[in-house]
Amino acid sequence: LLLSIPTFAQNSSARITIHKKNISVIEALKEVEKQTKLSVGYNESQLKNKPSISLALEKATLENSLTEILKGTGYTYQLKGKYVIIVPQEKKEAEQASVKRIAGQVLDEQGEPLIGVNVLVEGTSIGAITDMDGNFSLEAPVGSTLSISYVGYTPKTLKVGGANKYSVQLASDTKLLNEVVVTALGIKREQKALSYNVQQVKSDELTQIKDANFVNSLNGKVAGVTINTSSSGVGGASRVVMRGTKSIEQSSNALYVIDGIPMYNFGGGGDTEFGSKGATEAIADINPEDIESISVLTGAAAAAMYGSNAANGAIVITTKKGHVGKLQVGVSSGIEWLKPFKMPDFQGRYGTGSNGKAGNSSIYSWGPKLNAAAQTGYEPSDFFDTGAVYSNSVTLSTGTDKNQTFFSVATVNSAGMVPNNRYNRYNFTFRNTTSFLNDKMKLDVSASYILQNDRNMTNQGQYSNPLVSAYLFPRGDDFSVIKNFERWDEARKISVQFWPQGEGDLRMQNPYWIAYRNLRLNNKKRYMASAGLSYQILDWLNVAGRVRIDNTHSEYEGKLYASTSTTLTDGSTQGHYTVNNGQNSQTYADVLININKRIQDFTIVANIGASYSGITSKELGYAGPIRETGIPNLFNVYDLDNAKKRATQTGWREATESIFASAEIGWKS
Predict the structure, then answer these.
(1) 3-class secondary structure for 619-665?
(2) How distant is the alpha carbon of residue 27 from its chain centre?
(3) DSSP structure string for 127-168
(4) Pick from 648, 644, 623, 647: which is nearest to 635 by CA?
(5) Can you spell out the DSSP letters for 451-469?
(6) 511 neighbors 466 (Cβ within 8 angstroms)
(7) DSSP code of 251?
(8) Is residue 308 classed as helix, strand or coil in its secondary structure?
(9) Biggest alpha carbon–alpha carbon distance for the chain
(10) Among candidates 394, 461, 77, 437, which has minimal Cα distance to 232?
(11) Nearest 5 degrees, angle CA 582-CA 588-CA 592?
(12) Contact predicate 592/608, CB 8 Å
């Protein structure tokens, strides 16, 4: 290990004081480095085994100190500008040449220039990156070593001698080129055999920085993929677009595939201008600790086996299996703190009113100028809480040569930045893989059960959005007063909204009233079960069949308490209630014949199969204002106004039957 710390001012005249017994040579050199502010370069592997020394240096010169420290080690020193270089004694005279400028070119195996190769002088921070023609130029001491590295190629080192120009040829890293990736329908292939782009992401890259929706953890890790995190907050739906938007009217979102089976991503969207209701999605229910790897198929050719559903690309998820050996237990826990990253800038010079005058408006902030005593110092960021996301999981893995089992439990509990925003998810996953008939037959079964609930997900919009009134709160008013968002009404015998500022054109309400008394509640129960059976007929021929069901029951409740803006309650002063029950289900089955035959130098790879996918969605709901003669804030469908309540029933069904085939011939791999 060569260590070098850059410095910007030479300090060889500094005096050194070291009084220590049994100090190592490396520790002594670090002390010199600390006291002189010079950079000391040395080979740690050659100095770490040197005997310990005792030093009694008192305001000694740099030269005397280094001579004393290196005595009997077989090493001496060279002073070169900003650097102290520790070298073997016999090389001191042979390498007296000062730092020189060298140039070079880095080529690949075909003699083509490589762009962006890292060239570093070992033991220093001196380095360069090759340009469009593969050229580099830097200053390096004679006798130093250049380290040359590039992704996908075997690193190389080069000794700097008397020459001023060097040519370096890098060889491809065959281990990287032979990497196996998971492609369409769960088929494993060597990456070099593919005619399309597949990018793979390992599980540890998803779990280092946890997100309730693991899709957001892919951001910045896959080239050509744009991921927009939802404004719904923790657990919200995400938009994943590969290689640009494909359609103006329809979705450009990628297809999600779990263990080779395409998943319909129920959810997403959310309300627009007059709703502000955020939304989660089906893919956000997946526990990232259950994921082994992800292959991203960014092109239409890569995802062609899934038909038109994958026209926007596919994200292929491979989940974990049990491992052979003793019981392994894994525990993972993480905490994420949430604060607004960037807030809009608001003026604080003018108070409540408009046109420079007070009294003609209670909601605008363009009244008279505020003096120092009248400035409340309110900023919209005062409305936000410090959010927190708690992620915990336990995984168990065990197995024999014939049977492997995997089990996991995970929880995500979050309190959002917007007051009274909550998200909770509980995952239970089981998977078992068994081999029969001398390992020719394999049975793979898995099951997952997910409980998820959220409260007050807010994505955008004007009505029922607490941020509107929090942002536009008049600058001349005291925000602390409206934190007590409700007051007891003796006449009505209930607590009613306190908001002296008024609704205005935007139907504004007290932001805390919206957060605590305009409730949006979601509860979801989801279970997934799958089974796969494969049989190895010959060493080059196997047949496999799979079936998977994915069912979700969800319930949404919207509760608007009495004294909420009558624009939102259909004119009722008693409140408003909405309830929706939804059922989503998907059934998938396929059969696949796989051929992988080698005939001398030729290889034939073919896949032939058929699949069925059936998707059903239905929803039944009631919504309406609480009748004026009813009990305020009694939320049930029997107390709704008969003339204004609305019943809704929607549903759709889609079925796809497919056949597919793929064939490829290779020569000498």
Answers:
(1) EEEEEEEECCCCCCCCCCHHHECCCCCEEEEEEEEEEEEEEEEEEEE
(2) 41
(3) EEE--TTSEEEEEE-TT-EEEEE-TTB--EEEE--S-SEEEE
(4) 623
(5) EEEEE--B-S-STT-HHHH
(6) yes
(7) -
(8) helix
(9) 104
(10) 461
(11) 170
(12) yes
Mean pLDDT by 10 residues, the chain (669 residues): 39 77 88 84 80 87 87 84 78 54 89 87 84 89 88 85 89 61 65 64 71 74 74 74 68 82 79 74 86 80 72 85 89 91 86 83 85 81 92 94 94 94 96 92 96 88 87 88 94 94 87 95 95 93 95 95 94 95 95 90 90 95 93 93 94 93 84
Please give the DSSP secondary-structure letter assigned to residue 409: E
For 30, the token pair is 């670090």
- Whole-angstrom CA distances from 279 to 270, 456, 521, 560, 573 are 5, 10, 11, 19, 28
Listed in sequence order, the residues at least 6 apart from 351 whose beta carbon sits closer than 8 Å to its beta carbon are: 358, 365, 367, 368, 369, 370, 374, 474, 475, 476
Radius of gyration of the chain (CA): 34
Report d(CA 240, CA 151) in Å as an integer: 26
- What is the rounded CA–CA span in Å between residue 469 and residue 452? 30
pTM, entire model = 0.69
Distance CA 356, CA 367 (A): 4
Contact 10, 82 (CB under 8 A): yes
Q: How many helices (H) and strands (E) does the chain have?
A: 8, 34
CA distance 465 to 387: 18
Specify burial of residue 291 (Cβ count, 10 A radius: 0-12, 13-18, 19+).
Answer: buried
Asked if 40 and 84 touch (Cβ cutoff 8 Å), the reply is yes
CA distance 586 to 262: 10
Residue carrying the six token digits 């709704």:
640
Report the SS3 class of residue 582: strand
As given in the structure block, the two tokens for residue 245 are 């938007």
Angstrom distance (rounded) from CA 86 to CA 78: 6
CA distance 624 to 609: 50
CA dist 416 and 384 (Å) reads 9
Query: Position 239: which residue type?
Result: R
State the residue for tokens 């805390």: 512
Whether the CB-CB separation of 574 and 644 falls below 8 Å is answered with no
Residue 404 corresponds to which tokens in the numbers above?
Answer: 């492997």
Q: Measured between alpha carbons, how far is 423 from 414 in angstroms, rounded to an integer?
A: 5
Q: In this structure, are residues 513 and 524 in contact, taking their beta carbons and an 8 Å threshold? A: no
237: Cα separation from own chain's centroid: 13
C-alpha 605: how far from chain center: 35
